Amino acid sequence: GLSGEELTRDWAGDHPHHRGIYWAWPEVDYGAERGDLHALQRVFARPTGAVRTRTGANWAEIEAQNNWMWEDATPIVRETVRIRAYAGTEAGRLVDIQVRMTALQDGVSLARRGTNLYGGLNMRMNTVADQRIAFHTDPPEAKQRAAWATMHGVFGGASRPATVAVFQHPANPDYPGDWVQYPELNWFQPTFPAPNTRYALPKGKTLTLRYRLWISSGPAPEESALRAAWERFAAEAR
Fold this sequence. Notes:
The chain is mainly β. The protein contains 1 helix and 16 strands. The strands form 3 sheets. The protein has an 8-stranded antiparallel β-sheet with strand order 4-5-6-7-16-12-11-10, covered by helices on one side. Strands 1-9-14-13 form a 4-stranded antiparallel β-sheet, with no helix packed on it. The chain has a 4-stranded antiparallel β-sheet with strand order 3-2-8-15, with no helix packed on it.
Protein backbone atom coordinates (compact mmCIF):
# COMPACT_ATOMS: atom_id res chain seq x y z
CA GLY A 1 0.00 0.00 0.00
CA LEU A 2 0.97 3.65 -0.28
CA SER A 3 1.82 3.75 3.44
CA GLY A 4 3.82 0.53 3.31
CA GLU A 5 1.04 -1.73 4.55
CA GLU A 6 1.02 -5.31 3.27
CA LEU A 7 -1.98 -5.76 0.98
CA THR A 8 -1.53 -9.38 -0.09
CA ARG A 9 -0.96 -12.69 1.65
CA ASP A 10 1.27 -15.60 0.62
CA TRP A 11 1.05 -19.23 1.69
CA ALA A 12 -1.89 -18.75 4.06
CA GLY A 13 -2.47 -21.51 6.59
CA ASP A 14 -6.01 -22.17 5.31
CA HIS A 15 -4.85 -22.43 1.67
CA PRO A 16 -1.05 -22.75 1.56
CA HIS A 17 -1.06 -22.75 -2.24
CA HIS A 18 -2.48 -19.21 -2.34
CA ARG A 19 0.35 -16.96 -3.50
CA GLY A 20 -0.73 -13.33 -3.16
CA ILE A 21 -1.44 -12.01 -6.65
CA TYR A 22 -0.83 -14.94 -8.98
CA TRP A 23 -2.17 -16.46 -12.20
CA ALA A 24 -2.94 -20.14 -12.29
CA TRP A 25 -5.50 -22.62 -13.57
CA PRO A 26 -6.86 -25.57 -11.58
CA GLU A 27 -7.44 -27.64 -14.71
CA VAL A 28 -4.48 -27.84 -17.08
CA ASP A 29 -4.86 -30.64 -19.60
CA TYR A 30 -1.93 -32.17 -21.44
CA GLY A 31 -3.21 -34.78 -23.84
CA ALA A 32 -5.47 -37.11 -21.86
CA GLU A 33 -3.96 -36.12 -18.49
CA ARG A 34 -4.99 -33.33 -16.10
CA GLY A 35 -2.86 -31.29 -13.71
CA ASP A 36 -3.52 -28.39 -11.33
CA LEU A 37 -1.28 -25.35 -11.67
CA HIS A 38 -3.36 -23.60 -8.99
CA ALA A 39 -2.94 -26.21 -6.23
CA LEU A 40 0.49 -27.32 -7.48
CA GLN A 41 -0.29 -30.83 -8.64
CA ARG A 42 1.45 -32.49 -11.60
CA VAL A 43 2.28 -29.18 -13.36
CA PHE A 44 4.50 -26.42 -11.96
CA ALA A 45 5.66 -23.01 -13.21
CA ARG A 46 9.45 -23.06 -12.90
CA PRO A 47 11.67 -20.01 -13.53
CA THR A 48 14.05 -20.36 -16.46
CA GLY A 49 16.37 -17.63 -15.21
CA ALA A 50 15.54 -15.32 -18.10
CA VAL A 51 14.89 -11.97 -16.40
CA ARG A 52 14.98 -8.43 -17.80
CA THR A 53 14.46 -5.12 -16.02
CA ARG A 54 13.76 -1.70 -17.51
CA THR A 55 12.95 1.76 -16.20
CA GLY A 56 11.20 4.80 -17.63
CA ALA A 57 10.55 8.32 -16.48
CA ASN A 58 7.89 7.22 -14.00
CA TRP A 59 7.93 3.41 -13.99
CA ALA A 60 10.02 0.31 -13.36
CA GLU A 61 9.42 -3.01 -15.05
CA ILE A 62 10.47 -6.61 -14.70
CA GLU A 63 9.96 -9.32 -17.31
CA ALA A 64 10.53 -12.92 -16.28
CA GLN A 65 10.09 -16.28 -17.93
CA ASN A 66 8.78 -19.57 -16.56
CA ASN A 67 8.23 -22.97 -18.09
CA TRP A 68 5.21 -24.98 -17.04
CA MET A 69 6.81 -28.34 -16.29
CA TRP A 70 4.61 -31.42 -16.54
CA GLU A 71 5.54 -33.79 -13.70
CA ASP A 72 8.53 -31.44 -13.29
CA ALA A 73 10.05 -33.05 -16.37
CA THR A 74 8.43 -31.92 -19.64
CA PRO A 75 7.99 -28.23 -20.53
CA ILE A 76 4.49 -27.76 -21.95
CA VAL A 77 4.03 -23.96 -21.84
CA ARG A 78 6.45 -21.04 -21.87
CA GLU A 79 5.10 -18.21 -19.74
CA THR A 80 6.50 -14.68 -20.03
CA VAL A 81 5.31 -12.20 -17.42
CA ARG A 82 5.77 -8.44 -17.54
CA ILE A 83 5.02 -6.39 -14.42
CA ARG A 84 5.28 -2.62 -14.62
CA ALA A 85 4.87 -0.48 -11.48
CA TYR A 86 4.32 3.24 -11.88
CA ALA A 87 5.45 5.89 -9.43
CA GLY A 88 2.90 6.71 -6.76
CA THR A 89 0.93 9.94 -7.00
CA GLU A 90 -1.77 11.56 -4.91
CA ALA A 91 -4.26 9.41 -6.80
CA GLY A 92 -2.40 6.19 -5.99
CA ARG A 93 -0.20 3.72 -7.85
CA LEU A 94 -0.78 1.69 -11.01
CA VAL A 95 0.67 -1.76 -11.58
CA ASP A 96 0.28 -3.48 -14.96
CA ILE A 97 0.43 -7.25 -15.34
CA GLN A 98 0.82 -8.92 -18.73
CA VAL A 99 1.02 -12.72 -18.99
CA ARG A 100 1.91 -14.39 -22.30
CA MET A 101 1.59 -18.17 -22.58
CA THR A 102 2.90 -20.16 -25.55
CA ALA A 103 2.28 -23.90 -25.77
CA LEU A 104 5.42 -25.95 -26.36
CA GLN A 105 3.55 -29.23 -26.87
CA ASP A 106 0.36 -30.33 -28.56
CA GLY A 107 -2.77 -31.05 -26.55
CA VAL A 108 -2.59 -28.29 -23.91
CA SER A 109 -5.72 -26.55 -22.62
CA LEU A 110 -6.79 -24.43 -19.61
CA ALA A 111 -10.03 -24.36 -17.62
CA ARG A 112 -11.50 -23.10 -14.39
CA ARG A 113 -12.33 -25.47 -11.53
CA GLY A 114 -15.18 -27.57 -12.86
CA THR A 115 -15.00 -25.18 -15.86
CA ASN A 116 -17.27 -22.67 -14.09
CA LEU A 117 -15.67 -21.72 -10.75
CA TYR A 118 -12.28 -20.09 -10.14
CA GLY A 119 -9.23 -19.78 -12.36
CA GLY A 120 -7.16 -16.97 -13.86
CA LEU A 121 -5.70 -13.94 -12.10
CA ASN A 122 -6.04 -14.70 -8.38
CA MET A 123 -6.08 -11.98 -5.70
CA ARG A 124 -5.40 -13.41 -2.22
CA MET A 125 -5.34 -10.35 0.00
CA ASN A 126 -4.26 -9.74 3.58
CA THR A 127 -6.80 -9.69 6.40
CA VAL A 128 -9.17 -6.80 5.62
CA ALA A 129 -11.20 -5.09 8.33
CA ASP A 130 -14.49 -3.56 7.11
CA GLN A 131 -14.00 -5.42 3.84
CA ARG A 132 -16.06 -4.35 0.86
CA ILE A 133 -15.79 -6.15 -2.49
CA ALA A 134 -17.56 -4.59 -5.47
CA PHE A 135 -17.79 -5.83 -9.06
CA HIS A 136 -18.70 -3.83 -12.13
CA THR A 137 -19.30 -5.07 -15.67
CA ASP A 138 -21.21 -3.00 -18.20
CA PRO A 139 -24.22 -4.69 -19.86
CA PRO A 140 -23.65 -6.44 -23.20
CA GLU A 141 -25.28 -3.62 -25.17
CA ALA A 142 -22.78 -1.01 -23.89
CA LYS A 143 -20.75 0.58 -26.68
CA GLN A 144 -17.52 0.21 -24.71
CA ARG A 145 -18.00 -2.48 -22.11
CA ALA A 146 -15.96 -1.72 -18.97
CA ALA A 147 -15.07 -4.35 -16.35
CA TRP A 148 -13.42 -3.69 -13.00
CA ALA A 149 -13.57 -4.79 -9.36
CA THR A 150 -12.46 -3.29 -6.06
CA MET A 151 -11.62 -4.50 -2.57
CA HIS A 152 -11.73 -1.77 0.07
CA GLY A 153 -10.98 -1.83 3.78
CA VAL A 154 -8.20 -1.66 6.32
CA PHE A 155 -5.51 -4.15 5.30
CA GLY A 156 -3.34 -5.95 7.82
CA GLY A 157 -4.01 -3.64 10.75
CA ALA A 158 -2.99 -0.45 8.93
CA SER A 159 -4.01 2.94 10.29
CA ARG A 160 -6.18 3.94 7.32
CA PRO A 161 -8.21 2.21 4.62
CA ALA A 162 -7.01 1.39 1.13
CA THR A 163 -8.55 0.16 -2.11
CA VAL A 164 -7.18 -2.32 -4.63
CA ALA A 165 -8.93 -2.09 -7.99
CA VAL A 166 -8.47 -4.62 -10.81
CA PHE A 167 -9.20 -3.70 -14.43
CA GLN A 168 -9.62 -6.23 -17.24
CA HIS A 169 -8.28 -5.22 -20.66
CA PRO A 170 -10.88 -5.57 -23.44
CA ALA A 171 -8.34 -7.28 -25.72
CA ASN A 172 -8.28 -10.32 -23.41
CA PRO A 173 -9.90 -13.37 -25.01
CA ASP A 174 -13.36 -14.19 -23.60
CA TYR A 175 -13.64 -10.62 -22.31
CA PRO A 176 -15.19 -9.74 -19.95
CA GLY A 177 -14.34 -12.53 -17.55
CA ASP A 178 -16.76 -13.41 -14.77
CA TRP A 179 -16.02 -12.16 -11.27
CA VAL A 180 -15.62 -14.61 -8.39
CA GLN A 181 -15.20 -13.85 -4.70
CA TYR A 182 -14.54 -15.68 -1.45
CA PRO A 183 -14.84 -12.87 1.12
CA GLU A 184 -14.03 -15.17 4.04
CA LEU A 185 -10.62 -15.73 2.44
CA ASN A 186 -10.13 -12.07 1.41
CA TRP A 187 -9.98 -13.38 -2.14
CA PHE A 188 -11.45 -12.28 -5.47
CA GLN A 189 -10.65 -12.50 -9.16
CA PRO A 190 -11.53 -11.87 -12.80
CA THR A 191 -11.88 -15.36 -14.24
CA PHE A 192 -10.55 -16.85 -17.47
CA PRO A 193 -11.61 -18.59 -19.67
CA ALA A 194 -15.37 -18.34 -20.23
CA PRO A 195 -17.50 -20.63 -18.08
CA ASN A 196 -18.13 -24.21 -19.23
CA THR A 197 -15.26 -24.08 -21.72
CA ARG A 198 -11.69 -25.26 -22.03
CA TYR A 199 -9.29 -22.84 -23.72
CA ALA A 200 -7.00 -24.67 -26.12
CA LEU A 201 -3.41 -23.51 -26.48
CA PRO A 202 -2.28 -24.72 -29.92
CA LYS A 203 1.43 -25.43 -30.08
CA GLY A 204 3.35 -22.29 -31.00
CA LYS A 205 0.40 -19.92 -30.49
CA THR A 206 0.52 -17.28 -27.75
CA LEU A 207 -2.29 -16.35 -25.37
CA THR A 208 -1.95 -12.87 -23.83
CA LEU A 209 -3.84 -11.65 -20.76
CA ARG A 210 -3.57 -8.09 -19.44
CA TYR A 211 -4.72 -6.53 -16.20
CA ARG A 212 -4.10 -3.28 -14.32
CA LEU A 213 -4.14 -2.76 -10.58
CA TRP A 214 -4.91 0.63 -9.06
CA ILE A 215 -3.84 0.95 -5.43
CA SER A 216 -5.20 3.96 -3.57
CA SER A 217 -5.45 5.18 0.00
CA GLY A 218 -8.33 6.70 1.92
CA PRO A 219 -11.95 6.62 0.71
CA ALA A 220 -12.84 4.22 -2.08
CA PRO A 221 -12.67 5.80 -5.57
CA GLU A 222 -15.94 6.99 -7.08
CA GLU A 223 -17.40 5.08 -10.03
CA SER A 224 -16.61 7.97 -12.36
CA ALA A 225 -12.92 7.79 -11.41
CA LEU A 226 -12.86 4.00 -11.86
CA ARG A 227 -14.49 4.28 -15.28
CA ALA A 228 -12.01 6.95 -16.38
CA ALA A 229 -9.11 4.79 -15.19
CA TRP A 230 -10.48 1.76 -17.04
CA GLU A 231 -10.91 3.81 -20.23
CA ARG A 232 -7.28 4.94 -20.10
CA PHE A 233 -6.15 1.35 -19.68
CA ALA A 234 -8.44 0.08 -22.44
CA ALA A 235 -7.03 2.68 -24.85
CA GLU A 236 -3.47 1.39 -24.42
CA ALA A 237 -2.41 -1.02 -27.11
CA ARG A 238 0.77 -2.20 -25.34
